[in-house]
Design brief:
The structure is a single chain. With 386 residues, the protein is an alpha+beta fold. The protein folds into three domains: 13-97, Rossmann fold (3-Layer(aba) Sandwich), CATH 3.40.50.20; 126-187, ATP-grasp fold, A domain (Dna Ligase, domain 1); 193-383, ATP-grasp fold, B domain (D-amino Acid Aminotransferase, Chain A, domain 1), CATH 3.30.470.20. The chain has helices at 21-31, 47-50, 63-72, 85-92, 102-107, 110-119, 133-143, 169-176, 233-249, 284-287, 292-300, 324-329, 364-374, 379-384, and strands spanning 13-17, 36-40, 54-56, 75-78, 127-130, 146-150, 160-163, 183-187, 193-201, 207-209, 213-218, 221-227, 254-262, 268-274, 314-320, 338-342, 353-360. The strands form three sheets. Strands 9, 10, 11, 12, 13, 14, 15, 16 and 17 form a nine-stranded antiparallel sheet that branches. The protein has a four-stranded parallel sheet with strand order 3-2-1-4, with helices on both faces. Helix 1 packs across helix 11 (292-300). The longest helix has 17 residues, at 233-249. The radius of gyration is 21 Å and the shape is globular. The chain binds adenosine monophosphate.
Length: 386
């Protein structure tokens, strides 16, 4: 688009593909900006509907539902990258969909994502496309230790197997080999830290990054983020430079998360892209002048991006199904910095993201020690963030 687009007027209806917690938080931020929302989600009473969005309960590829969304909304966005790219392309022809389907095609497929990052000369882990068990044996010889991943469909560590001994090769291959999806072997990266950057870009070409978050995962699910990440300034700056390069390279409109590994020498290796608000950016709700959710709405409604350089130090803790019962019993013992965000999901399951807590704190170490005493999260995990 060459002409400078007009901002969407307050009161306009915004459509979202997906009605989970990310959509819920987009809705909450967008309501404060006077926008209205319609979400498409197959599960009745999805978290976004609980926050007041109108819901179309249908599958993501349901043409009738997509037509209603296109005819009713001024702009449509998606809250996660595993929506059907064909459905998004179809929708793109009918309604303003600033993120576009191209970014989905790249981020839905690890091989395409890696090829894109290589074109931008952004460092990634060495990898090989795997079609046969022999390919995997060769990759193992070359990499010594590797992670086998499905090229499509994986999230929160699903569709991944670590291969650290040659005897594991046949099982790992059989586990992931599937006629429907390609598989990729990635060299295991002996990282010191995992970090992420949320970057936003709008149609005017304005780009802004949030501070770098330091993240800790357990069983591939994010448990805790500490902000700012404990990095030397040059490395933190480099992480933001990479984020901006990716945003420009993708012609991003909206927010995007770039997850990276930090090696012992400070080198950064990009792991994954998520073209939407991200769990590791939840701290922005309470620690920054603009949240990642508000920023995404600003970007897709052609508003100027909000400030991201006025952020305070913070800790974000995920509340998974296994944490919720004890947390609810200990609410009165939470430190006064605690900001509780629960998504209202009906069913509590181990590993399911039920909510999160943000803590804006000048002294994250003292805060983490007080959280260890609560006994809700594993002490060994919190200690690793001290
Ligand atoms: P992903 O789904 O690719 O984000 O991977 C989930 C988690 O697995 C990451 O957050 C890392 O903790 C770990 N992981 C993924 N790829 C690698 C790799 N190449 N080397 C080491 N750890 C990895």
């Amino acid at each position: 688009m060459n002409s400078v687009p007009e901002p969407l007027q307050p009161g306009a209806l915004i459509g979202i593909l997906g009605g989970g917690q990310l959509a819920q938080m987009l809705v909450l931020a967008g309501h404060a900006m006077s926008f209205r929302f319609m979400v498409l989600d197959p599960n009745p009473n999805c978290p976004a509907a609980l926050a007041g969005a109108e819901q179309i309960t249908a599958n993501y590829d349901d043409r009738h539902a997509l037509t209603v969304l296109a005819d009713s909304c001024k702009v449509v966005t998606f809250e996660f990258e595993n929506v059907d790219a064909h459905a998004v392309a179809w929708l793109e022809e009918r309604v303003d969909l600033p993120q576009g389907s191209q970014i989905l095609r790249i981020s839905q497929n690890r091989l395409k994502e890696k090829a894109f990052l290589e074109r931008l000369k952004i460092p990634i882990a060495p990898y090989k496309k795997i079609s046969t068990v022999n390919h995997l044996s060769q990759a193992f010889e070359q990499f010594d230790k590797l992670i086998l991943k499905t090229a499509t469909g994986g999230y929160d560590g699903k569709g991944q197997v670590l291969v650290s001994g040659s005897e594991q090769i046949p099982h790992a291959f059989n586990e992931l080999h599937d006629a429907d999806t390609e598989i990729v072997a990635e060299q295991y990266v002996p990282f010191e830290k995992e970090v992420s950057v949320i970057v936003a870009r709008n149609r005017l070409g304005e780009v802004r990054c949030f501070p770098v978050a330091e993240n800790l995962h357990q069983k591939n699910i994010l448990i805790i983020s500490r902000i700012p990440a404990r990095l030397i300034p040059a490395v933190a700056e480099q992480a933001q430079i990479i984020a901006k390069q990716v945003a420009e390279g993708l012609d991003l409109k909206g927010v995007l998360c770039i997850e990276m590994f930090v090696l012992a020498d400070g080198e950064l290796v990009v792991n994954e892209l998520a073209p939407r608000p991200h769990n590791s950016g939840h701290f922005t709700q309470n620690a920054c002048a603009t949240s990642q959710f508000e920023q995404h709405i600003r970007a897709i409604t052609n508003l100027p991006l909000g400030l991201t350089d006025t952020c305070q130090s913070a800790v974000m803790l995920n509340i998974l199904g296994q944490h919720l019962p004890l947390l609810l019993k200990k609410l009165k013992h939470l430190p006064p910095e605690a900001k509780l965000h629960l998504y209202g999901k009906q069913e509590t399951r181990t590993g399911r993201k039920m909510g999160h807590l943000n803590f804006v704190s000048e002294s994250p170490d003292t805060l983490l020690k007080s959280l260890i005493k609560l006994g809700i999260w594993e002490e060994s995990l919190l200690t690793r963030m001290l």
